Batch of 2 targets.
Target 1
Amino acid sequence: MGSEERIRLVCRECKESYPLERITICDQCLAPLDVEYELGSLTIAKTSYESRVKSIWRYSELLPILDRRHCVELGVGLTPLVRASNLGDSIGSSKLYLKNDTLNPTLSFKDRPAEVAVSKALEFGDRVVSCVSTGNLAAAVAAHAAKAKLEAYVLAPFDIEPEKISQILAYGAEVISVSGTYDDANRLATLASYELGWNIVNVTSRPYYVEGSKTIAFELCEQFGWNPPDNVIIPVASGALLRAIHRGFEQFRDLDLIDSVPRLFGAQAEGCSPIAAAFKEGVSTLRPVEAPKTIAKSIAIGDPADGRYVLETVRQTSGSVEAVSDSEILAAIVELGRSEGVFVEPAGGVAVAAARKLIHKGIIPKDDTTVCCITGNGLKTPELILHEPSLTRPATISPDLGALKELLKGRSPLLHA
Ligand SMILES: Cc1ncc(COP(=O)(O)O)c(C=O)c1O
Ligand SMILES: [Zn+2]
């Protein structure tokens, strides 16, 4: 069976099926479409992965690009899975791991969906790509567009971090700063797609775009020797990442590569936590947050496109959605840096702070295997760390030993011969 017959778009609700075209919602019921693969016709041997390419394209049978020549490659994926024993000791988990996606080419997990979306844009014959973004997706799309020789335009809320803007500009994309929230920029993006025909990768190519993110689940299966972890904690904004990770585990289970799907936990910042609030209230309808207020700007989406489906997924896997405060996020960033040598942006702090809470409350048993998805690098938000009062600020001294001894007075005995 060729890829074209094996891969379809299928309505998430009524299951109507469509060819792989640029459509995102079902004609019949207006629900979102997902890419579905005819798994019955597919046999994958675990050993085949030993000799495959070392990037997300090792999973090409389960990605929606029909012609390999369209794949744009920046070396995305196969990020380290590290045992976090020091952090685990501190938060009370005996088997804690970090999936360190800060080490992707543009320093966040967004390289995964962007690499698939820009490849799909090439397959559709586009010459321009765009996205609406809180910063990380924009950098990832811009870098991939540069490699693919496409023009790139980014719609972003006006208050994203300056480091993220520098990064996007360095890849040659144009940033259009929207005076409003992410949701305002998202509404404008949808209008631009209708009126100007733009390919906004996370709007008009959303079914394809999200496929890249499920490679995190595939990698975890491989990295744990085909014995998936008990729990995975995931920072949530629109909800696309959490849903994609779930689909990844389900697809590997349906292919008999693993036996079970982990419990999935969403993590949000209190200042923008519509999904955590709905989970707590036990309802399935979200109340959008009009004015998000948190240091975790990359996940500040008040009206998450996949919010309802995140609730469904965490309930189905016996997980939950936790909210954590800005001070807990900042403390987690510092703790992760000091205990494990990993510097993260606030979204990473959100996952770690949520892990601490879930273990403390006994929702996650201490001896379970638990993975925190660390999705963005601290170098994208370096300013924040300077607001943490427990850190020693750099002191400037004259270049002589007397000044150094003076500075070290009363400090650790290890500093003195
Ligand atoms: C660093 C980081 N982590 C997690 C997320 C959440 O992604 P999603 O919108 O797929 O829920 C984002 C989204 O922008 C992000 O930038
Ligand atoms: Zn439908």
Note: The pocket of zinc ion (ligand 2) is lined by residues 11, 13-14, 16, 26, 28-29, 31 (CB under 6 Å).
Target 2
Amino acid sequence: MAAALEVRGRTPSQIRLRRRFLRWVPVGAGDRVLEVGCGTGVVVRDLAALVGRRGRVSAVDTSATLLARARSLSRGAPGGRIVFRRADGSRLPFGDGRFDVALAITVILHVEDPLRVVKEMTRVTRPGGRVGLQDQDFGLIGATHPDRELTAKIFDGVAARIYAEPHSGRRLGALLRASGLADVKMIADVYQDTTLTQFSRNFLGRRAENAVRFGIVDAPTAERWLDGFNALRAEGNFVLTMQYFGAAGVKPAPGRR
Ligand SMILES: C[S@@+](CC[C@H](N)C(=O)[O-])C[C@H]1O[C@@H](n2cnc3c(N)ncnc32)[C@H](O)[C@@H]1O
């Protein structure tokens, strides 16, 4: 998991869409920022550079292993001070109004009760501050493959078993409104790959493994499916796109909505 997050973090199309989202929220110099579900700290290191020496980044995750990795990878990272804490996004160990910005990036898709987490993020954000979410939407994957039916069966079947709401990306704006945020805006972006990057390889490999694990296809069929992508790459015809959505809203002043 840690290695896969770092591979994704280094993939150029992912760097572009992550940084575009952070500027769009926006996160700026001097901000006190919270990231919920920081993993190995890919976003945290970008945030520290964005907020600069006057700013501060707090980051929480439920996984002690990932936090240990995040701490070691962020040592000496340029920019604002970074503080990691082990905590669940649905019970944040911070007082009300502590942050200018609270973010969750590719996390909401994985949590049991997204509304509870976003309400907590809103609580710890100051009035006038921003709450921002970014997620993939697993209903919107574009892939070239000779067997379109099998591809849809694997993508849709695995996503339905792994995530409570595979289409969570497109619903992020509604989630922010339900949490009491105002001026909610949305941005769509896309991960695109025509070279079969290591990140795409990992993603397709995990989908194939899970399709076998959940009994959606047998092992030889999963192998054949992966071979189809390798053949396309050899011909120069590989294409994989994944839709991402971002949403951001402003915490209203008390008594206003
Ligand atoms: C896909 S990773 C994203 C990591 C990082 N935001 C990034 O984009 O590289 C999802 C992370 O959310 C964490 N997570 C899941 N549920 C959580 C919760 N309820 N509270 C805090 N972290 C959570 C997981 O441990 C994992 O590190």
Note: The domain at 2-250 is CATH 3.40.50.150 (Rossmann fold).
